[in-house]
Structures are given as C-alpha cells and as structure tokens.
Amino acid sequence: MTYEYFASLYDRLMKEAPYEKWMDFFAKGISRFLPETKDVLDLACGTGEVSVRLYERGFTVTGVDVSEEMLAIAHNKAESKGFTIPFFQQDMRNLESIGPFDVVISFCDSLNYLQTEEDVYKTFQSVFDVLQPNGLFLFDVHSVGKIREFIGNTFADNDDEISYIWNSFPGEASNSVEHELTFFVYDHHTGLYERYDELHKQRTFTIEQYVQWLEETGFVVREVSGDFADQMVTEQTERIFFTAQKPK
Questions:
Q1: CA–CA gap between residue 145 and residue 139 (Å, rounded)
Q2: Which residues, 6 or more positions from 117, have their beta carbon under 8 angstroms from its beta carbon?
Q3: What are the pLDDT digits (tens) for 87-136?
Q4: pLDDT score, position 28
Q5: Tell me: the pLDDT tens digits for 48-83?
Q6: What's the rounded Cα separation, in Å, for the pair 61 and 49?
Q7: Assigned domain for 64 exists
Q8: Order of strands, edge to edge, in the sheet holding 162-170?
Q9: Residue 4: what pLDDT?
Q10: Which of 15, 18, 223, 230 could be 243's S-S partner, Cβ–Cβ 3.0 to 4.6 Å?
Q11: Is residue 193 located within the same domain as residue 167?
C-alpha cells in the first residue's frame, strides 16, 4: 500500500472526523489512571492532526508513522503553527531509539492495518518497551461486526474538488477487508480531474484476543469500551477502545 497520493488528500477526506472525541477519550484515560502525564507518543500519527491537538493542550508530543508522505504533511502542519514536534518514520512493530513515554496512543483504527496476530503482538511488545513504568496505552480498533459490515458495500461521494468510489471486499484472512478506493481530484491548473487508486487492507480480532496479547506482553487492561462512550461493548458496537497500563 502506498500513501503517496492518499496522504495529500487525507485531511480533506477526514475533515468531519470526530477528533475531539478521541481527545476526550485521551483526557478521560489520563485523568483516571495517569493524571501527571507529560510525554505522549502518537503512534501511526498520519498527518499529525492529533499530535498538534495534544501539543496545543500542553503535552510534549512525538509522532511516529511508517509513511514518509504522511510525516511530511505532519511536519509542515506543526511547523506552520510554530510547534516543535519531532516526527519519525518507523514501523510500529519495531520502535527504536525513542522514549520513554508516559502515554502511547494509536487512534483512528490504525492498528487494524496490522495483518497478522504476530504483527499485533510485536506492536504491543514494542509499545510496552517504550513506556515508562505505570505508562498508559490507549487505542481503538474496528469491531469484528464493523469489518464484516464493510464487506460487499460500495460508498461514494461526489464533490467539486474530490470525488471517490470506495468498494470493500473480503480479505484473505478471517475478519479482514480490502478497500479499493478510486479518487477523482480536480486540478485547478489544468481544469481536469486526476484519477488515483489505492488499496487498503484492514483486519481486526476479537476483544478476547486483544486482551490476551496485551496481558501476555505485560499490560494490565484497565478498560474496554465502545463507540467513544463509557459503555459496554455490544454486537452493535462499531469501534472498540482499550485502556492498558504498564505495571510500576
């Protein structure tokens, strides 16, 4: 998968994303379990939208992403505001030479891009290693039901600047999906639309599996909740939130 074109479109496509709800989840998590939080790692930070919001709230923030294109936009976004946020190109499964951090976050179902059980386990171990004792790991994933809901559906949007067609198909592994996205982006210089194609693969696992891997890597699972709210997870839950803590 390449983010060469998708990175340049990401913020426009995500302009209605509930970033403030992710910030509320973060704020509630640290107030309950680690109110003295200072240093935060934004894992799979993308274009840095959450990183910037955390910096604005007074936290020391570091961003990590595997995409050079995403990181370039994140760096420019922070620099344009006069913010000092270091961004590093690293694989979340093997974080190196950074930390330690009070909190690691990974929002917007970023962990669903991990395709194997081993990938998830390695990521959890990697996060555990860069956390301070008592540090928190906050993340969200698509539920099994949400992944299955994607499959076989087509989504589309027609806009003067960006239009897209989004088809979702079953992935090769269980509880996985492949998103074929076609974008038509208006070029103001030529007056024509440019076409870009992307393939995104996502996979999820059961709550029990995530909890097991967190515990096996040393975490204590503090809370599991659904859909941005402090509520029990049900069959209708689309997004699952985890709060895990590294022991002292």
A1: 18
A2: 205, 209, 213
A3: 999 999 999 899 999 999 999 999 999 999 999 999 999 999 999 999 99
A4: 96
A5: 999 999 999 999 999 999 999 999 999 999 999 999
A6: 12
A7: yes
A8: 154-157, 162-170, 176-187, 192-203
A9: 56
A10: 223
A11: yes
Closest C-alpha among 56, 63, 47 to residue 20: 56
Q: What pLDDT, on a 0 to 100 scale, did the predictor assign at position 1?
A: 45
| Rounded Cα distance, 229 and 25, in Å | 8
Q: What CA–CA distance (Å, rounded) separates 28 from 206? A: 24
Residue labelled with tokens 């996985």: 176
- Residue 151's domain spans which residues? 146-203
E strand intervals along 49-206: 60-65, 87-89, 101-106, 131-142, 154-157, 162-170, 176-187, 192-203
Task: Give the number of domains in the chain.
Answer: 2
Q: What is the CATH number of the domain that holds 172?
A: 2.20.25.110
Query: Which residues is 65 bridged to in the sheet?
Result: 89
Stated pTM of the model:
0.94
Residue 231 one-letter amino acid = Q
